[in-house]
Inverse folding.
């Protein structure tokens, strides 16, 4: 393999796929790309790639195929159902990496379809990625890969070419496990992208200076990767540059909620985020950067008549914003870990992935391991850290101030409800209740 | 009393107060009115009332005072704290009816303030009303009155003059009980006003003819008083006439959620409605009729790219809308009854009030008595009626279709989450689970 690198076909040369495919070209592979958008093919050819005019033509005689289209519908079309779909031309025993973010249900169904179509010889790897276009082009993505041992063995070199060595997660559980892993990470993403807008929108209504307040937040236990990452664009009057459109996170959000319904597993936080995302879409914000959702929170400022909060100085106002964010992050963490447990994922691996990726938060770092202990039936104690009652009290004060200022706090309000439920379940407990116990709402 | 009708002072001549006060004039009482808005005083004088320039002047030498200002803050000002407040001039042993909708906490605090201020002689009646301006002027309001036996005895004739005899509810529990009763009714109002917009907005995205679909809904088990009442204005392109502004229901909604937090009682449905109301306020819809919130659901129609639902004909689309509405109404009913139980109200009386008032729905009529049985620890069976699992399945299909159409369904989504929680609690139950069991989420 080191001497004669195998030929690769690459279907789907969008923002991510283009970077991934050109990286493989740079690494010395002969890559034949396909996309429906001719200018992209021309660009790919200019970087040294070969091109094909149909998926079938692209995959012909190549033992490896990477598919990086946008949706499950597109994957179904280019692999199985569309004109000149790949399937009939895929060589016997070919390795197929589906890197698109799709529902677990889809990729498991794809595996079954291959069997029914008498193409069980194809080695399918379910390998969604995360990390953005720049890391795609660098070959330093995070990849969560599931499949048979044989398929993973065959495809490992490709996974390694595309990923950061520390961020290649081989997920136990076969095809679908990679998609489930990515989905659970996206629970954090879906909630924490919106939390950034909700938190900074609340700060705006409180009258805080957003630049200095947000720097304080980033240094505090209310830090989250998404808040820090979205901050410059939230503060830009035009929410530019567009780094990740609302439609992107909405697609992932809908995968979470539909898979959760399929499992009869409640995802109250993500459901709430999804409704707000739909409202943003209805406002025409779909193509805009997701940081622009702060508009949904700030648009009423100064136009809703006289309102007066109780917080009198910047310190107490900042404390309210942080309490709101911590409240959301705690419930996001609990929803993520509980859902990962339901999906039979290795919770230590989920934690490691999330804490080192876009789902990271200081709350996840602190409380996540405790939630995982609870999920395993181990005992935990509140120790010296903040208890759930104090946490709830601080969140409640934030929600009350938001009510006085007449600003919506969709996620914060939902988080308080869930925290109240958790405290009711724990009413018989002696002494203080640890924060991780909020996860009892999700059946942990 | 029949021969010499007592003099009445009346503070607060807004839309409701003006009608109530002029009705008392028509009934032959000498009524002295006060309001901060001079043109209103002139109008009141023209109908035969007397007028005063301060609260203190209005109440002087009158054994009865009705206070019908808009908020607790205003009540505190005109009765206790403001310039020329009523308190110092109220005769010894006067009867004071506070008819404003205020938090229970406020009116109970007012009772304490009177004691501390050595005016425990004043007979305070907590008597919020409902029914709108027309019924105020007719003397056929619904009134929910709490107070000491002595105060209620003294004030009964006034309560009777202002109310429909079938809709005067003397609520056990002293001062505060009337406010709690009204608050619990408003849980239904807060949710079902928004449900009307959410349901018809969903119908619009489904492509249903809204006129015929809504007539079908009104005839069905998805009927609610609020839907029928708001319908003409939802269908009017300008949402006219303004019968009840968004700011009005938002005020009541915030009373519910703040009182619920004070009791550490979760109100997930009303919390959700409140956030959407705040978003409407931020859009500048505060003074508009609350039926105009349908705009928050329909604004994206046709502008969010290609979407396609699964429902193929009008019958199946209508079934989805009805399932959405029933799902919301069931959780509204459970939240209402559970909160009423927490407030130690007589649940039969709550039911009688709600079913005959603006909170009524076909679901409340059917399932409400079963929830009340559960609240009393009585056994219920699913019998021949629909079970919770089937109810949840139908609601889930509606939520899934809304997701395909990319339309927000804030209340429906929350209702599904709560129904899922309830089914988890009931997972050990043998056989079918009755719909009323959804109330277990609220600790019933």
């Amino acid at each position: 393999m080191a001497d004669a690198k195998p030929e690769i076909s690459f279907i789907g040369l969008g923002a991510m796929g283009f970077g991934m495919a050109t990286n493989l070209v740079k690494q010395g592979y002969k890559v034949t790309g396909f996309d429906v958008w001719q200018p992209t093919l021309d660009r790919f050819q200019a970087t040294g790639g070969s091109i094909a005019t149909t998926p079938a033509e692209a995959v012909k005689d190549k033992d490896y195929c990477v598919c990086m289209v946008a949706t499950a519908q597109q994957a179904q079309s280019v692999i199985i159902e569309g004109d000149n779909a790949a399937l009939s031309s895929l060589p016997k025993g070919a390795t197929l990496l589906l890197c698109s973010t799709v529902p677990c249900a889809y990729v498991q169904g794809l595996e079954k379809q291959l069997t029914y179509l008498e193409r069980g010889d194809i080695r399918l790897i379910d390998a969604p990625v995360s990390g953005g276009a720049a890391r795609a082009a660098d070959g330093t993505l995070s990849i969560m890969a599931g499949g048979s041992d044989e398929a993973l063995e065959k495809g490992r070199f490709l996974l390694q070419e595309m990923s950061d060595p520390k961020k290649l997660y081989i997920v136990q559980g076969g095809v679908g496990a990679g998609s489930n892993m990515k989905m659970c990470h996206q629970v954090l993403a879906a909630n924490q992208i919106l939390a950034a807008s909700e938190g900074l929108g609340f700060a705006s209504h409180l009258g805080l200076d957003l630049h200095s307040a947000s720097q304080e937040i980033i240094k505090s236990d209310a830090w989250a990767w998404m808040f820090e990452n979205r901050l410059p664009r939230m503060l830009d009057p035009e929410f530019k540059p567009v780094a990740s459109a609302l439609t992107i996170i909405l697609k992932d959000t809908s995968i979470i909620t539909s898979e959760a319904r399929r499992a009869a597993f409640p995802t109250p936080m993500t459901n709430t985020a999804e409704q707000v995302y739909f409202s943003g879409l209805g406002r025409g914000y779909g193509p805009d950067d997701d940081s622009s959702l702060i508009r949904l929170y700030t648009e009423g400022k100064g136009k809703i008549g006289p309102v007066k909060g109780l917080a009198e100085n910047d310190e107490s106002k900042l404390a309210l914003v942080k309490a709101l964010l911590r409240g959301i992050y705690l419930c996001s963490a609990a929803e993520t870990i509980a859902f990962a447990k339901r999906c039979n994922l290795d919770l230590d691996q989920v934690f490691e992935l999330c804490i080192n990726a876009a789902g990271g938060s200081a709350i996840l770092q602190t409380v996540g391991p405790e939630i995982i202990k609870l999920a395993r039936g181990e005992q935990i104690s509140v120790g010296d850290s903040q208890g759930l009652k104090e946490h709830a009290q601080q969140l409640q004060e934030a929600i009350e101030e938001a009510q006085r200022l007449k600003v919506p706090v969709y996620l914060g309000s939902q988080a308080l409800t869930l925290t109240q439920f958790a405290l009711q379940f724990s009413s018989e407990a002696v002494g203080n209740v640890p924060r991780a116990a909020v996860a009892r709402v999700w059946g942990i």
